[in-house]
Amino acid sequence: MDDMAGMGLRVRDAVERDLEFVHAIYVPYVLNGLATFEEMPPGVDELGARRESVISAGLPYLVAESEGRIVGYCYATAYRPRPAYRHTIEDSVYVAEGYGGRGIGSSLLRELIGRCEAGPWRQMIAVIGHSGNEGSMALHRRHGFEPVGTLRSVGFKLGQWIDTVLMQRTLGESDRTPPSFDRHPEG
Hints:
Number of helices: 4
Strand order of the largest sheet: 1-2-3-4-5-6-8-7
Strand content: 25-35%
Order of helices and strands: EEHHEEEHEHEE
Structural class: alpha+beta
């Protein structure tokens, strides 16, 4: 857990009762932003199913709590479904409206990276919606991500074509050693 002195910010595992707040944070991103390519906000039940999928894969799903209020959340998911990608994950970080620039995203991402480094994963990818999303790119740079490419005009939302910026950072041993095959490659 990350506890930022002076801000009263605590990063912890998300629980079911947090999903209403996660939903309230995510809906404006879906309806008004370009950080996600989702166009219709998922319901709380769908977000719950997504959280369960993350947890059942052994990955973290975290919230940032300040003075009893959920002010951000993050999680990691498989980067791609094919077995050869099983050591690569993708991060997602969302901060509540009006709470940007307070270190919440940084606290969330730091904890997410730390937990993922403790697992079998070797690479973390950030797929940043909208090449003008300087805040997200700066956040990821601060945590060791490097830009590796831009996919131009791969989405169309809110009347405009949208790029995605790919950033990547290593986790743990990275590609210096072969992975451990404690599990069958299929799961």
